[in-house]
Amino acid sequence: MNKRKILVTSALPYANGSIHLGHLVEYIQTDIWVRFQKMRGHTVYYVCADDTHGTPIMLRAEKEGISPEMLIARVHDEHLGDFIGFHIQFDNYYSTHSLETRRFSEEIYGKLKTAGLIAVRGIEQLYDPVKNMFLPDRFVKGECPKCSAKDQYGDSCEACGAAYAPTDLKNPYSAVSGAKPVKKSSEHYFFSLSDVRCADFLRCWTSEADHLQIEAANKMREWLGEAGENKLSDWDISRDAPYFGFEIPDAPGKYFYVWLDAPIGYMGSFQNLCVREHIDFDEFWRQGSDAELYHFIGKDILYFHALFWPAMLENAGYRTPTKIFAHGFLTVNGEKMSKSRGTFITAESYLKQGLNPEWLRYYYAAKLNGTLEDIDLNLEDFVARVNSDLVGKFINIASRCAGFISKRFDGKLVDGRQYQLLQAMVNERFATWRPDQIEKAFEDREFSAAIRHIMKFADEANEMIHELAPWEIAKNPDRNDELQRVCSLGIQLFYLLSRYLKPILPETVQQIEGFLNCEPLAWPQLNAGQPVADLLLPAGHAIHAYQHLMTRIDAKQIDALIAANTHSLAPAAHHDSPARHAEKQQHAVMPIADTISIDDFSKIDLRIAKIINAEHVPGAEKLLKLTLDIGNEQRTVFAGIKSAYDPEQLKGRLTVMVANLAPRQMKFGLSEGMVLAAGGGNPGELFILSPDDGAQPGMRVK
Asked: Residue range 12-41: average pLDDT?
């Protein structure tokens, strides 16, 4: 395999606020991809920095009575602490308020000026007559000049994505004082983005060489226009004092606009790393470099990264990005994050509640793909998926087998003839398994597809162990060889799964490496036609005693998290009084039914069932069609739980069903049983029952 040289960045978090779960979508996505590439043996550097300049920093520092430098130093430590808490492993986390970023900003500006791409002209700018200051774009709000959406910022519209000047806004007002701004003349510096050199370059760059995702490339074409048509406007890159940032050379009282030096912060952070680690900066940034440069960003800043940034780099003599990976936004329970609902959750709050950061890393991975689609953190599904996949499937494999190896076989896996039999079992049972599909999914950032493949393998591993039933074999001392082989098989399959999950669960897999007594896990490499068994631990390998690796999420932990992040609103903003709100949290308790005998109860055959498919029923208002695995057969059940569950939430979950209920012919098909659910009678208040860890399809509930 050819070794690659890769430089990766994430968007720079602004030093004026806390890291929240929406931010973490990007950093977790990037970190997983970087860890995957490093596991494959490539040379990869992941750098980032706090974005520290601009009026918001200046005003906040003024309000707190400290210098901007003191503020950004404190926030830097807070941000880095949050990232470390979620196992985001930067090679360098820096600040844009640095000598390196200043030097690159001045150099790039100077080269653009020499190329005739910097223009100076007087403009009318909005001015706050109360604060006696010119208003930066983000401190002017009003109605979008394109789509008329209200309360939009002065540089771009969050509703339609249009970019514009603050003076284009309808009905503008100052976000600092609320006053109606007035227009005042000021001399500003512009990057001539409309110059034919920039326009022609960008038209080629955004449409060729797969620099952008399809959706992003289409958006760029819309903004650029067709050949011979130039929709681009020159870009205002200066701001007037008072302003916290870098002063423009030979222009007293004029400062670089934060969006000029922010992406240059990628270069500043990497330069800082290069000096410390003796890395050749030019090897990654010179034009014609064979190194790869990737930016992970949110789709809301695509305009700056796919137009301004490449045009600046190209015309300043630097290489342009290999690819820009944009992602969508995060919703929580299908809606925008909300402080009043407690779903605007900070990273610090999540960690303080004692929630495992790898639960969130896994859930995001299970949702993320290579598109600009938004992803939803459904908190109920979050609990169910983590408990089912990570604890019920993955960790369960080790917990079911490790004890026998430690207690009966002195911690040693099989060797000799028994190892050969184990290899044959793996190759026969998993001959059609395609680890190359997992690798491709990781490379393409299709993490949700990778998770599906990995969990399919976990399901097959659990099914195999369930069929072999080591707990039954252990009852017969004459079957010790078989017991050691079967439990060794479980440990070997767990070892394989751990290698594929390491980019997502780095902390847990580090503990697993200790338990398995093995070297740090590298990415599994299989050549075409090479059997899966070649990836196993060696014959006779000794493991350490098993220690518990991960707990299940308790739904009460999520309730506490929401409560900790719920911000009280003014009474007038509430539609319900606190008392009425409390009433809504209660459920109606139905009276206990008539007493039955144990004989009556024993007639009901309750079985553990795995939901292998769930789908909507055309024309049915309340029903979902479930396909259930009950061990030795599959059943179809129509369940009236549509108001409470999305079908995708149910796939792969275990539940309890009445297996001996007489089949019922319904309008939509034959229903062959009933799943059990609890409910209080209110619409959507239904909760299907879930068994504890270790339960398997077909087991009888008694």
From this structure: 97
pLDDT at site 655? 93
CA distances from 141 to 148, 157, 173, 182, 420 (A): 12, 10, 6, 13, 71
With residue 100 as reference, give the H or E element that holds it: helix 99-114
Cα gap 498→549, rounded to integer Å: 12
Six token digits for residue 315: 């015309």
Q: Are 492 and 518 in contact (CB under 8 A)?
A: no
> Residue 88 has which token pair?
């985001």
Buried b / exposed e along 303-327 (16+ C-beta atoms within 10 A): bbbbbbbbbbbbbbebbbbbebbbb
Q: In the structure encoding, which two tokens stand for residue 651, read together?
A: 């796939």
> Residue 486, Cα to own-chain centre: how many angstroms?
36
Angle made by CA atoms 329, 332, 334, in degrees to the nearest 5: 90
How many CA atoms lie within 13 Å of 312's alpha carbon, on the beta-carbon side? 25
The strand ranges marked E within 346-487 are 375-377
Burial label, 622 (beta-carbon count in 10 A; 0-12, 13-18, 19+) = exposed
Query: Is pLDDT above 80 for 517?
Result: yes
Q: Nearest CA to 153 among 133, 134, 174?
A: 174
Beta bridge partners of 625: 615, 638
Alpha helices (H) in 379-415, listed in sequence order: 379-385, 396-409
Question: What pLDDT band is residue 594 in, cutting at 50, 70 and 90?
Answer: low
Express each pLDDT in 611-669 by its tens digit: 989 988 876 767 889 999 998 788 999 988 876 777 877 888 899 999 988 888 777 78
| Token code pair at residue 345 | 């959750």
Q: Is the separation of the CB atoms in 193 and 233 below 8 Å?
A: yes
pLDDT tens-digit map of 89-98:
999 999 999 9
* pTM summary value: 0.78
DSSP designation for 245: S
Q: Which of 507, 411, 500 is nearest to 458 (CA)?
A: 500
Q: What's the CA gap between 262 and 532, in Å, rounded?
A: 46
Q: Are 323 and 14 within 8 A, CB to CB?
A: no
Give the C-alpha separation, 246 to 234, whole Å. 21
Using DSSP's 3-state secondary structure scheme, residue 634 falls into strand
pLDDT category, 267, cuts 50, 70, 90? very high
Residue 624, classed as helix, strand or coil, is: strand
Between CA 284 and CA 540 the distance in angstroms is 45
Q: Is there a contact between 421 and 451 (Cβ–Cβ < 8 Å)?
A: no
Is 389 in a helix, a strand, or coil? Answer: helix
- The three-state secondary structure class of 540 is coil
Which DSSP string corresponds to 138-203? GGEEEE-TTT--SSEESSB-TTT--B--GGG-EEEEETTT-PPPEEEEEEEEEE-TTSHHHHHHHH
Instruction: Find all residues with CB under 8 Å of 546, minimum gap 6, and list them.
Output: 398, 399, 402, 403, 406, 515
Dihedral sign computed on CA atoms, order 255, 257, 258, 263: negative
Residue 335, strand partner residues:
332
